[in-house]
Amino acid sequence: MGRCGELLSRIHAAVRKILALSIKRAFYTFSEVKTSYTPAHYHELGPRRLEEIDRKVDADLAEIDNAVNLLLNVTPVNTEQAWQDFENSSYKVAPEFHYRALRIDRAQLKRQLFVIEVASVADPTLHSLFASKREELERQISMLMDRGTVNFLLESQQVYGSPEQQLTEVANRILETVVVPAKEQCTETFVDANIFLRHAENKPAYSDNHGSHPDSDRAR
Questions:
Q1: Alpha carbon distance 8, 14 (integer Å)
Q2: Which run of H or E residues covers position 31?
Q3: Nearest to 97 by CA among 115, 121, 80
């Protein structure tokens, strides 16, 4: 029953989109032949304002998107320690990542997601956008629950796709050609944000004591 309802919903959406497109094209041809109004494209004959249901669906989807907060929740909280462990293993053992505790209920959020009245949106373009966003959010919720597992990779590929072959080849060439110096060969001094800030704050005082830079004088 569930699969049947989902299939009918998809068929209904597809028919509505095709029908709306056909009507727009028919009126576009009619306006060019029979009236003085000549729109540049048949898409100009679509709705010119958002209906109340459109705004509500958009707001409901945005609320769930904010609750998911994918980028924050899939960012490990132990990146420095994980890198240290990876380095200590001579880059042979994959590190173990730790993540923030989730403050969402997966089942409840998915129920809330599919209660949103996307089917009530009349405009086919908006309906397609909202439906795609709902499908993306549903998969992102699953991704959060599968952090640290192989399922996360598979679900992320469903949402964002796999890297193109050309991009993969470029990345591999970079790894093969770029030589990373060993730790003992590195002579550069690294500074953190606080040290950088102190130097930036002291820069005006240095300029006052030593005068303007010659280039800045010439620029004036």
A1: 10
A2: helix 2-34
A3: 80
- On whether the CB atoms of residues 101 and 77 are closer than 8 A, the answer is no
Mean pLDDT per 10-residue section of the chain, whose length is 220 residues: 59 73 75 74 67 93 94 93 92 91 89 92 84 94 92 91 92 87 62 80 61 48
Question: Considering the entire predicted model, what is its pTM?
Answer: 0.61
Find, among 5, 132, 143, the residue nearest to 57 by Cα.
132
Sketch the domain layout of the chain as residue ranges. 1-46, 48-183
- Euclidean distance between CA atoms 53 and 122, whole angstroms: 9
Alpha helices in 35-164 (DSSP H): 52-68, 70-73, 79-88, 106-115, 124-145, 150-160
Largest CA-CA distance found in the chain, in angstroms, rounded: 81
Read off the tokens for 171.
């990345």
CB 9 within 8 A of CB 119: yes
Rounded Cα–Cα distance for residues 112 and 144 (Å): 16
SS3 189: coil
Determine if residue 161 is left, alpha or beta; phi over 0 gives left, psi from -120 to 50 gives alpha, anything else beta.
Answer: left
CB 109 within 8 A of CB 67: yes
Number of neighbours of residue 132 by Cβ within 10 angstroms: 11
Q: How many CB atoms lie within 10 A of CB 54?
A: 18
